[in-house]
Amino acid sequence: MAASTDAQDLRAAWRALDGSHDGEGWRTITVSTGSQCVILAGRRLPSNDEALLVGFTDAVSPADRQLPQGHGFEVSCVAGGTVGANQFWLALAKRAGGSTELFAMMAEDVLRLLQQTTAQSGDILLLLFLSRIRAWQDFMDRHKEGVLSSEAELGLFGELVVLSDTLAAGAQPEGTLDAWQGPLDGLHDFMPGSGSIEVKTTLAAGDFPAIISSLDQLDERLRQPLFLATVRLALDKAGVTLPELAVKVREQLSGRTAAIDMLDVRLIQAGLLPTALDRYSRRFRHVSTTVISVQEGFPRLTRSNVHPAIREARYDIYLDLAALTDVGLVRALKLLGVT
Fold first, then answer.
1. 286, β-bridge pairs
2. 258-310 pLDDT tens trace
3. What is the spatial distance between Cα 149 and Cα 195, in angstroms, rounded to a whole number?
4. Among the four residues 30, 167, 180, 220, which has the most C-beta atoms within 10 Å?
């Protein structure tokens, strides 16, 4: 694919296209080209709404009912002649009344995904494109109020603690942020390479209760190596709020524009909206982080050790009762090939 086009370039293209609203169709500027994919910044006329148009080579057009529609955006098929290329085209476009800032962040994330993937098949690129948009759609469904629940606030804080410590250990920033899948409701919170780190966070002062959400979450057959990182926090007036911790992580990325853009998008995907930062007043102090290898002898439920009639399960593990060994985050990152 072509070299990465940053968020500022995409927004600059939209500004350049913000002219006459007469007529119908699209006004576009090419922002990226590759053997399997061409990407245009566009505006739809006569509404003048911002859009990202993607032309896929050797991809099968999905049915209209398979195209995601969300809060303030839509995905639609575009006739190739309309944008001047003989390819199958999809447009990700903002709807009237949709948030310009939120749509821009979604479009930037999709653009970055398509530019950085190594996939050589048009069909695979199409699947990645639709999957990422559905993830944004899920985010919009989950966070209709615009403010994280207390539980989600705590969970995101714990993920940021692990992210910050991973960066401090020398991990490559862009790769680390790409591996951070918690905001996208990935199987695990961090998924570098073929391995994973699942993060659990608690304010409990005694036993550490880890809530496991599925039979797949602690199944090391799906991702290897697999680690469980347990982050213990305490409420403390001298601690930091969730937005303050996000700022500290951002400072760790100083000078890395692409990484900062990725962090900002991930925070939005997690539900930490710039317009609601003053709603998070709880201050947390980081007490400890323990990292445990999930392998034979680890107490958990998986599809291989429960009856086939049990399709789903949600359960708690009290980790302090299991006498498990802390391998440490630095050692886990080395085993994952991150550092």
1. 233
2. 898 889 888 988 888 776 889 999 999 999 999 999 998 899 999 989 999 99
3. 29
4. 180
